[in-house]
Design brief:
mainly beta, 2,3-Dihydroxybiphenyl 1,2-Dioxygenase, domain 1, eight-stranded mixed beta sheet, 109 residues, 8 strands, 49% strand
Amino acid sequence: MASCTYDHFGVPTKEKHAGEFLIEAGGVYATSPDAHPFRVEFLRFNADSPMPEPVRTRSHAAFLVDNIEAAIKGYRVVAPPFDATPELRVAFIMDGDALIEVMQKRNRP
């Protein structure tokens, strides 16, 4: 993998948090890690969220990568790449017992 930069720590929760916004593709309300001093992102999943069980129930570390397809190669893919927002493509993998989110920003014209 060419480049990998830590972005945030994601924590599933059942509680509403100030500033949360809906990520429709995942059926989840999220807070911005930019608003937390330790870059924590709180995730509150809808009952009908399409996200797999590990993503809905386990905390994860998230990393920005240059190439999401290359980053997930050789790992157990829990959630294949999908468009979380128009600017961001994400996937979730397992590395042993660690749940990891890999994120690729789109180059916008």
